[in-house]
Design goal:
Strand order of the largest sheet: 3-2-4-5-6
Order of helices and strands: EEHEHEHEHEHHHHHHE
Largest sheet: 5 strands, parallel
Low-confidence stretches: none
Number of domains: 2
Number of helices: 10
CATH topology of the largest domain: Rossmann fold
Mean pLDDT: 95
Strand content: 5-15%
Helix content: 40-55%
Number of strands: 7
Length: 224
Amino acid sequence: MSEKYLRTLVFTGTSISHQDAKHILDGVTYCPPVFRGNIDKAVREGYELIGIIDGIFFSRSAVTHKEIVRAMEAGVKVIGGCSMGALRACELDVHGMIGVGKIYGYYRDGVIEDDDEVAVTTNPDTFQPVSAPMVNIRETFRAACAEGIICNENRRLLTDLAKRTHYGERSYLGITKEASKKGILSEEKAMELFTYCRDHEKDIKREDAILVLEKVKELMSKEG
């Protein structure tokens, strides 16, 4: 039996760049973050395996549940995690979509619910993020608390402050400065926390993006 490979397409560019993704998974087609109509088009073009990492949320229509279901009904394997992929996977795993990663698990288990947890503002030319995702902020503040940089009560207050901030304006510098203004942290402690977040961010979106790529690689080969 010779080994064949499923024709594969991956939507990403924000949580992990195409260049970095190719170091993990080469030989597939990479497209920018998915939006409505992209999955139907991919099926028409004959793709047999689709990985969804990043997607468009608010600037244009998001990828629909129905088109993903149509793809799976047509025999296409669909894997999701990290960002838009995690959102759709937690909603469609009962229909056969494969979900991977910590963020997918958080959505599936109801730990988080809102789209803005993974949403970021991006550079329109490169799709790279220019704001910090709420899921990363939560994990980074937990780590800072575990390191003794902030107490658990301040972690809770800082997380609430970040959650109240519009997703496109979330940054560690902005949040720590605002925390200092509100008296949650002293100026010295705010700077210490910012430095920690800048240098030791827990980038669980990138970690989950890598897990999606590894799962796609695992499922690409088929016997023929």
